[in-house]
Amino acid sequence: MTRHLLPIALAAAVVFPALASAADTQPPPRIIVSGEGEATVAPDMAILSLSVMREAKSAREALDANNDAMAAVIAAMKSAGVAERDLQTAGIQINPRYNYTNKADGSQEAELVAYQVTNTLSVRVRNVDKTGEILDKAVSLGVNQGGGIAFTNDDPKATITEARKKAVADAVAKAKTLAEAAGVSLGKVLEITDQNIAPVPMPMAAKSFDAARSAVPVQAGENSYNVQVTVTFELK
Predict the structure, then answer these.
(1) Does the pLDDT of residue 41 top 50, yes or no?
(2) Report field, pTM of the whole predicted structure over 0.90
(3) CA-CA to 117 of 20 to 30 Å: which in 14, 85, 193, 227?
(4) Which residues make beta-bridge pairs with 138?
(5) Distance from C-alpha of 149 to C-alpha of 45, rounded to nearest angstrom
(6) What is the 3-state secondary structure of 44-58?
């Protein structure tokens, strides 16, 4: 080999192994599919949002009246079997209320007429069958605003696991169908990601409280837990 061809031969010796190495590191063909699974279970806990609003000429008077009413509500919750840890103040608001009078020049004159104090209590009812009874007691003792109810589960892990298994099975079935249609075979699973979708709370309007009789009729129904997965398979 002549002297001037030696550098070219050395360069080729370096480049060709590099190209071979790059080809070896190419990712294998793959397919990405999504799957969805659902599992249902009866709720074992209700979360109530109970609000007491009182109005008076001064903020002090309104707050005092509200405190008395809310204290009675809390006492009733405890007597109904609600534990201390399941009672939590969710918010207290003090707002002035004005009357507005239109003036001849088009402006408005504001007159302070009262103060409104609203105290909201979050209550976890672990005996769902007593939800209607507790709502009725709360209204009788002064709950007169707001009103929200959400049925949930204290420990939904087993139900979510069932939904997760169904989601993976759904993804595998989809992948097999697609691979068969394409004339290829599924290889090993390369990656799995999932996303849990919790049940949507069921709201109860304040007007439902106004119609309370001996006990508020409440239907707990079932909670549906959904899981979505994304699975990446190797193709071979």
Answers:
(1) yes
(2) no
(3) 85
(4) none
(5) 10
(6) CEEEEEEEEEEEECC
